[in-house]
Amino acid sequence: MQKRTNQDYQTMPWKNGGGSTTELAVFPPGAGIDDFVWRLSRAAVHVDGPFSHFAQIDRSLAILSGEGLVLHSDSEQRTSAPVRLTQASMPYQFAGELPIFAELCGGPVIDLNLMTRRDVCQHYMQRLTAGEHHVSATEAQQILLYCAAGTAKIRMSDGDAAELTQAGDLLIIDEEHERSGIRLQISAEEDAILYLMRISFLNLGESNHGPLG
């Protein structure tokens, strides 16, 4: 189990000046935008604009601050209604190839974005609030737990423990025994907002997952 905080991240401004991206974690360590298996980032969005095109990538998006975004699909069929995301919304999953235009609801937002390479792994992101959460991710080889607000205590099935004490804290948890999955208990305080992300590799023999540097 590995913990990261805001002091560990680097922020990069967008070339078009419309915002910035803070990379929280990437696998394999040191991978770039063209060769990552998965990538977790936080973006500050200042203006309306199109999402970048990511072939063979699945994405999940959640709003951390601000009034929110309206996502318009620019597909040829135009059959999908716009999707409005706010801080209270569940994470929204979509294909990276889908042409999407993001419209700010009323000012800048900060979002949380998980991307996984479709032919290597799958992911599931969920939003957790106050209470006791027992996680039995028997299918997952890695779990990411991000603190958006409040505090929480985490205890692993093997007795390891950690705390998330401020917004921006991130835990990275790796499966210790092949094909056994990950089990943990999360005690989230009254004001806590957490995002739990499960990552499952399609071919464990090729995943070579392990601690992130």
Overview of this protein structure:
It is a single chain. With 213 residues, the chain is mostly beta strands. The protein folds into 2 domains: 2-117, Jelly Rolls (Sandwich), CATH 2.60.120.10; 121-204, Jelly Rolls (Sandwich). Helix content is 2%, strand content 54%. It has 1 helix and 19 strands. It has one helix at residues 204-207, and strands spanning 2-4, 10-13, 19-27, 38-45, 49-50, 57-65, 69-73, 83-85, 92-95, 100-104, 109-117, 121-128, 131-137, 142-149, 152-156, 161-164, 170-174, 182-188, 193-201. The protein has a 6-stranded antiparallel beta sheet, with no helix packed on it. Strands 1-17-14-19-12 form a 5-stranded antiparallel beta sheet. Strand 2 (10-13) and strand 3 (19-27) form a beta hairpin. The protein is globular, with a radius of gyration of 17 Å. The termini are close together. It holds the Pfam family HutD. This is HutD family protein.
Write the topology of this structure:
Blueprint (H helix, E strand, L loop, with lengths): L1 E3 L5 E4 L5 E9 L10 E8 L3 E2 L6 E9 L3 E5 L9 E3 L6 E4 L4 E5 L4 E9 L3 E8 L2 E7 L4 E8 L2 E5 L4 E4 L5 E5 L7 E7 L4 E9 L2 H4 L6
Antiparallel strand pairs: 1-17, 2-3, 3-4, 4-11, 5-10, 6-9, 6-11, 7-8, 7-10, 12-19, 13-18, 14-17, 14-19, 15-16, 15-18
